[in-house]
């Protein structure tokens, strides 16, 4: 989906304003938000791709008007409702009112640190040989699907070079919609800045993306 | 802009709390009340990312690479394994790639589509990394971006921007600053700033 | 500038919600907003291109969170301040506090209806022969200028066909920044939907834009 | 979404008024107080666009084209002049083009970049025409857009979208509905809806 998250190349957001000695959290609610997103995700009802898809579905005015933790919380409320854990009644009351679906698991305190240290790898064995080889010129497909995808608009239709051929990885385009992991080979594709941005591009610039095989076509 | 709005649908929340505090507290109350999450697990997660996992991890990786050519080579070939050998693994660091600055090329990491960041070596990302100004401009105007961090590269330095569009996570290994020859690994690690491992900064110069 | 106004192809804005028997105005303030924009514009300090450029410079959260008349008023406040007619003090007080620049003219009530009926043509005589001819294949340039432009991002880099060759018209790219009218030949360029949107495009679709000569290059 | 926000910088305004009423009133007060605008001129402009200029103008153009092949031909060749001959000229109608629906091709007008619209024949645009949902989707999913207006075109009908990126303004001339043969120009004009001249609708069918 061409949504508000896909900001590469936009120019209207103002200065970056890096904060010196920035703390990890700016308020206690951010700590709880982080923990809620992780512990609720640990219930096993959705995956990271569905989380991203849900955040991207926020109205652009909301997405651009919210801090990232706020985007996370708004996304989480949607995910919890979609999967039957929380209802609009619950949210209205600010209290558990309605019954909830049964989670696959509940993360216990003792499990938390080990789970963080373990992570969740997304590479998957894949037997098909790579369709593209390192050094080959490829074109990022000019695709505009209604579904979630990780091919940014600025790269679509553009010519690049395969810089690295990776393992198979879970395909976000299907995984985000509960349609399976469908692992595909992942590639690092390097684009000349002038290819991406024309004569306005920085001549010293190369930008790479990591692209699944179905995002690419022969040049 | 981030907090410029009110939520009109928040009338059920405690009026004494700011809207996000109230909203998050309500959600935690609901989920804990239904037995879906354990608030103590949240405490434990916060402890990990507030006190244990942060850019000092990445700084140790860089210092090791600066000190040990074999490690540097391993880091280049298989960053996930090399970094794991120092004890840094886990969430948002499952598939690591290390990219090395050279005299010719400066590396810069961004996630235009969300906030992908190598948590296992850098901890949680700063607000600016997750926000549209940086995400939008890093891929089209990296020199303008670097200028906002007080950094000016020579005009002929090549800039390589890594847009983290998949689950690979990038760690920039900056060049070792001049005059750091006699320093210990810990002293070297002290020169390595968070921003220098994102590409929006350079390591500190050693004290003369 | 790649700003929030350039929404062609975005998918996250929700339903269109046409309003049956919609009135021309939904509130009295909208009437005054329309009139203020027109009468203030009649002072002659800026042109329509600068107005557009100014509205496009609003933060995306504001642009997408505002009705169109609100965008107009926010833009007008910026224009009036840029040109010395209004100050932050005035706006804070809600009253005239500081002195103002002298307008070229003030539109009187009796002039209003005739001025509306007259309009303000933007075509300009141009002596150079057209660079492109009807039926010719051309490419919209992949340009990403910092300045105002009217070439939408969805068409940049795409192949189209010259469908019509028009007069010279004021070039927004310079006119919006007080850098002169620099009239250029205007063309209507038709793009196949599949060229714009790839395989996700509607095969029955053709989209045209009106493009100034410098927006185009030979195919 | 349109009015989902508060303005925090509006604290100087009269609290009894909604924020936009207060904001616009303040601006008019400032400008009128400085002698830069004449409120009576605003009244006159509003009178033009509330009472005089609207889609009945365009409907007369279409009815004339339906009735008079010579006019239709003129409208095709030089819409600005042909439309002016009926008395419709002016702001946001200085450079008109008329595009004719046929059995093969349906025309749809949009302005993806702002709100360009042929005021002189259609009056002020409706809110949806100026808003991102229509502007964003008309060029990529016109059939989905038409469905939201209750319109379904045959699958093989070609769709031509005119994105008003310059100062040309487009008027769609819909096909004359069947059964309208004996009608007067006024009766024909009554069949012509605003949306049918944008392309998001069809003319009404004549009363049987």
Description:
The complex is a heterotetramer, with two copies of chain A (219 residues) and two copies of chain B (208 residues). Chain A is of the alpha+beta class. In chain A, 32% of the residues lie in helices and 17% in strands. Chain A has helices at residues 28-41, 48-56, 60-65, 68-82, 88-93, 109-118, 172-175, 193-197, and strands spanning 123-124, 137-140, 159-169, 184-192, 205-212, 216-218. Chain B is built from eleven helices and four strands. In chain B, the strands form two sheets. A two-stranded parallel ribbon of chain B has the order 1-4. The radius of gyration of chain B is 20 Å and the shape is globular. The model of chain B is unreliable at 1-14 (pLDDT under 50). Classes of the chains: A alpha+beta (219), B mainly alpha (208). At the A-B interface, helix 1, helix 4, helix 5, helix 6 and strand 4 of A face helix 1, helix 2, helix 7, helix 8 and helix 9 of B.
Low-confidence stretches of chain B: 1-14
String of helices and strands of chain A: HHHHHHEEEHEHEE
How would you sum up the global shape of chain A? globular
What is the SS-derived class of chain A?
Answer: alpha+beta
Helix content of chain A: 25-40%
Q: What is the structure about, briefly put?
A:
The complex is a heterotetramer, with two copies of chain A (219 residues) and two copies of chain B (208 residues). Chain A is α+β, with helices and mostly antiparallel strands and 219 residues long. Chain A is built from eight helices and six strands; from the N terminus they run ααααααβββαβαββ.
Helix and strand arrangement:
The complex is a heterotetramer, with two copies of chain A (219 residues) and two copies of chain B (208 residues).
Chain A: H1 28-41, H2 48-56, H3 60-65, H4 68-82, H5 88-93, H6 109-118, E1 123-124, E2 137-140, E3 159-169, H7 172-175, E4 184-192, H8 193-197, E5 205-212, E6 216-218
Antiparallel strand pairs in A: 1-3, 2-3, 2-6, 3-4, 4-5
Chain B: H1 19-33, H2 39-52, H3 55-67, H4 69-77, H5 79-84, E1 96-100, E2 105-110, H6 119-122, H7 127-130, H8 132-137, H9 142-148, E3 158-163, E4 169-173, H10 185-191, H11 194-198
Helix pairs in contact in B: 3-4, 3-10
